[in-house]
Design brief:
Length: 262
């Protein structure tokens, strides 16, 4: 029985990420409505209540009302614009697939400007909020600040690579930027998943668990996506069986030089 090909894995991963981004957009855009007007329904809270329990959501948000109201305006930017970024990512993939490069470049510029605007709001929120008042405490504040710095630095390096004429390097930096942005929907998935396996965990405890491994998921995911875009079948210094099996053997380029001198 023939297993899935590399192209099938790439296509499946792309579809999965795209569906997750599009589904997450309305959830994050409506997340702050209850804080601006109590009683207003939010899609994410409703889904989480149906998945886990109403009590679970109520206990998690009971301590967030006053801190979130204090920084409501700065939080609107990463919330609403974050949802827009979730939609801009698949739009760029679609324009690339259809080879509409002019529209792709326009969407890329809009994406970068939106990242800066969203992260500016997130930075203002972090500056106005004491680390102890952040959801799950100071450790979560530090992680949010790290994600902010990683997102801004990766998109900035992507712009510099594009201006410098390095399209492959630009794509790699933007994949890392996408990875940082995907920590938000991944965290929401963890809010609903672990309580089903380990009932009794609070959302604050799940946040503490998530910050221990989401960083590695971002780095490995961006690296894997970057390598998946490399369609070369052979590379100087490796064998066709891969770098791991090639350890201990002479690189092909060096072997050829040695043979030419004998």
């Amino acid at each position: 029985m023939r297993g899935p090909t590399n192209s099938a894995w790439r296509r499946g991963a792309t579809i999965t990420v795209t569906v997750m981004r599009v589904a997450y957009a309305p959830i994050v855009m409506t997340e702050l409505w209850p804080y601006a007007r109590p009683g207003t329904p939010a899609i994410g809270e409703r889904l989480l209540s149906q998945t886990v329990s109403t009590r679970y959501v109520a206990d998690a948000l009971a301590t967030r009302i006053e801190p979130n109201r204090h920084s409501l305006l700065p939080m609107i930017a990463p919330s609403v614009l974050g949802g827009l970024l979730m939609l801009l990512g698949p739009a760029q993939l679609l324009t690339t697939a259809r080879r509409r490069m002019h529209l792709h470049r326009v969407l890329g510029v809009v994406f970068m400007v939106t990242v800066y605007a969203s992260m500016a709001g997130a930075g203002l929120y972090l500056a106005r909020t004491n680390p102890e008042d952040t959801f799950s405490g100071a450790a979560f504040w530090i992680v949010l600040a790290t994600i902010l710095a990683g997102t801004v630095s990766s998109v900035t390096c992507g712009i510099l690579a594009s201006v410098g004429g390095f399209p492959d390097l630009y794509q790699q930096w933007m994949l890392l930027c996408y990875g940082f942005l995907l920590t938000a929907p991944l965290l929401r998935l963890e809010w609903g998943g672990p309580p089903l396996l380990l009932p009794g965990l609070s959302m604050a405890e799940i946040n503490q668990v998530a910050i221990a491994h989401l960083g590695s998921v971002v780095a490995l995911g961006a690296l894997d996506a970057s390598r998946a875009r490399d369609r070369r079948t052979t590379v100087d210094g490796t064998t066709q069986r891969g770098c791991v099996r090639g350890f201990g053997r002479r690189p092909r380029s060096r072997a050829r030089r040695d043979e030419s001198t004998t």
